[in-house]
Specification:
Length: 124
């Protein structure tokens, strides 16, 4: 019997806000929103959007993680949802346009580091 796969977005789905937008507002100034408009109009891919916007950020990985620590709120019931999926034998995978470093860190802090997730790979 085929296994059930559940794919879930991260930013604005598991979290209340888009974490990458929080970081860009803090570290890239407001110029990044010009690229957001181009991306939303279909004039730029998500990969190009991430590359251009995050190239403006000069903060370290740790600085950004420290900055978002008290700003990211998860939707209520997410951990219960994970446990439900596990209990039913469903494979839960996070597929996100966000960045791998903060998604991994947030999941880690929740004790959910074993959740498979795919996101934009970051290099510092």
């Amino acid at each position: 019997m085929p296994k059930t796969l559940i794919q879930c977005d991260f930013d604005d789905t598991i979290t209340y806000k888009d974490v990458s937008f929080i970081l860009l507002d803090a570290y890239a100034g407001m110029e990044w929103r010009d690229y957001l408009e181009k991306y939303q109009d279909g004039k730029m891919s998500v990969g190009e959007f991430n590359r251009r916007c995050f190239s403006m950020v000069k903060a370290s990985r740790q600085e950004m993680l420290d900055y978002i620590e008290d700003k990211v709120r998860l939707r209520p019931g997410f951990v219960d949802f994970v446990n439900l999926c596990r209990g039913k034998g469903f494979r839960l995978v996070i597929v996100s346009n966000g960045l791998d470093f903060y998604i991994g860190e947030i999941l880690n802090k929740l004790g959910l580091q074993d959740i498979e997730h795919h996101a934009s790979e970051t290099q510092f």
